[in-house]
Amino acid sequence: MPDMPTVLQQARRSLAIARKDVRIYYAKGPVIIFGVLFPVFLFLSFTIGRHLSVQFMIPGLLGMILFFTATSVSPIVIPWEAQARTLERLMSCPVKIETIIIGDILASFVFGLGISLVPILIGLFLGITVLSPFVFALAVILAALCFASLGTVFSIPPTNMPSTVNMIAAVVKFPVVFISGIFVPLDELPAWGQAVAYISPLTYFTDIARYSIQGRGHLPVAVDLLALLAFTALFLVVAMKLHRRTMPRRI
Amino acid sequence: MNNNVAIQVVNLTKYYGELLAVDHVSFTVRRGELFGFLGPNGAGKTTTVRMLTGVITADEGSASILEYKVGSLRAKQVTGVVPEMANAYGDLSGWHNLMLMAELYGMPASLAQERGTGLMQETGLYPRKDSLVRTYSKGMKQRLILCLALLSDPEVLFLDEPTSGLDVQSARLIKDMLQSLNARGKTIFLTTHDMEEANQLCNRVAIINEGKLVAIDAPEKLRMAVSGMYSVEVSFDNVVNPEVLASISGVNTIKKLGDKWRLYTTNPGELVVSLINYSSSNGLKIVSLNTLAPSLEDAFVALTEQEKDNA
User: Which domain holds residue A108?
Assistant: First the structure.
């Protein structure tokens, strides 16, 4: 077990890695396209002309934007750095592989959180009210962390092509959006649909958002929060275990 | 443990699938040594450096840097690295690259700024410190990478082909910096395939071929160890018959180099006398005559080919 000073020292180095990611990767094409433009257009194409209420639309829009933005930075950083030949430098520095991954997750987390303020502010401007803002804020933060961690799972295969990783991510992300109660609320899904929905972490966030904004959730809030926490832990463990194995193979 | 040892390598081995890239390599680098690691392309130089800098893990054997296990945070903390073909972050300025490195090594900000400024001035990068690295020339990038490696003032420095493909000025600047660092007591592990560079800079060199260490010694001793590699370079004022030249006693092999002949021998003194006799009895005039000790390159070729013959 690493001692406390080592943990603090590595945490500070994670922050340095996150700041580097913010400076370099926020403005990269794939991040803007997959992280911001895609969810907005996808959402518009499903909602325009359906006469839906603001209270129904905002939780869906928020869930989708948070999911896409928070998973847009973390998958591309490691393959991008391997391709640009900056990864070997980073790996020879006194940082653990976990430190590098947490730094990338932090950068993706902040990106997701920042962009998600936009639909929240639009909603507030259009007159939505948020039931128990504290729980809602906690859910947004937890979900952003969960999705950012999922992003690093996408980059486990040791390819050095960011586009390949984005393809792998898209194969997972699109189906997830359709089974997570974004377009159709959970209680309107058939039993098999609900069963599938429970394997998606986005379901639990959308459920809290619907509870907070529409006033009707499908599951108890505590269950949603615990599920998000459990998924986050799962993604973190998987990402760290497997990146440790695949990262040297990128060099 | 001997605290005179900077790098200790014992039976280090790495497989890539079926390929044995590094084959049970063992050596010791003393503190303050400038150690050269030579070998043809694909011999296992870079793989060895990557194992020693903790980027990849060895399949067998062990190694330590200042008694810390390679790959550990402590070993990395005392090490500076110039990896082969590595880049600095092109989307950051030279200065931001340096400050990132300082944070990753846990340096206090004021010290990092002081050392960063000094290094950039020494390498002539200071006027361009705020430009993005992707606008730097190749020589500037390589100088920046050396600055990144030196920022934390590491005790042990690994450089993998640091001057390969560089302009003369940048290469010379880097070599001068390595010599002055070494004079200040830093241990330097340098891989290169440039024999002249190794000959000028290194206290000792190891030669690796097909993953195996074939020799390790001071450059002068390696040169002397290759017997039969002395040569005499001679040029005449007229055309000579190579067959006659080759039949002079004491000549092992002959090679034509431009307007000169190089005659390999075990006894250069006797050969010079024979050549003078040959020229006077054939009415030839000697334009130039030089005796040459084997170069490090000769030693390298002899040692790496010997391996091939044994295989």
Answer: 4-250
- Strands B260-265 and B251-257: what pairing? antiparallel
Q: Give Cβ neighbours of residue A140 (< 8 Å, ≥ 6 apart).
A: A62, A66, A113, A116, A120, A205
* B104·A90 Cβ contact <8 A: yes
Contacts of B83 in chain A (CB under 8 A): 88-89, 92
Give the sheet arrangement for strand B204-209, strand by strand: B79-82, B156-160, B187-192, B34-38, B204-209, B212-217
For an interface test with A, the pick among B59, B92, B96, B103 (most A C-beta atoms closer than 10 Å) comes out as B103
Least reliable range by pLDDT among A144-158, A187-201, B96-110? A187-201
Chain B residues whose beta carbon lies within 8 Å of the beta carbon of residue A88: 50, 55, 83, 86
The CATH number given to B227-293 is 3.30.70.100
A94 vs B73, B90, B145: nearest CB: B73
Q: Please list, in sequence order, all residues whose beta carbon lies within 8 angstroms of the beta carbon of residue B199, skipping any fewer than 6 positions away.
A: B219, B295, B296
Assess B100–A contact: CB distance below 8 Å, yes or no: yes
Euclidean distance between CA atoms B182 and B199, whole angstroms: 15
- Cα(B229)–Cα(B268) distance, rounded to whole angstroms? 10
Average pLDDT over residues A201-218: 94
Q: How many Cβ pairs within 8 Å bridge chains A and B? A: 73
Domain ranges of chain B: 5-218, 227-293
CA atoms of A17 and A101, how far apart (whole Å): 9
CATH number of B5-218: 3.40.50.300
Domain count, chain A: 1
Q: Listing from the earlier edge strand, what are the strands of the sheet with B260-265?
A: B251-257, B260-265, B230-236, B286-292
Instruction: Write the ipTM.
Output: 0.92
Q: How far from chain centre, in Å, is Cα B265?
A: 28
Sign of CA dihedral A201, A202, A205, A210: negative
pLDDT at A120 over 70: yes
State both tokens at B222.
């390696």
pLDDT for res B308: 61
Average pLDDT of the residues of chain A: 93
**Helix A201-214 vs helix A221-246: crossing angle, to nearest 10:** 150
CA A112 to chain centre: 7
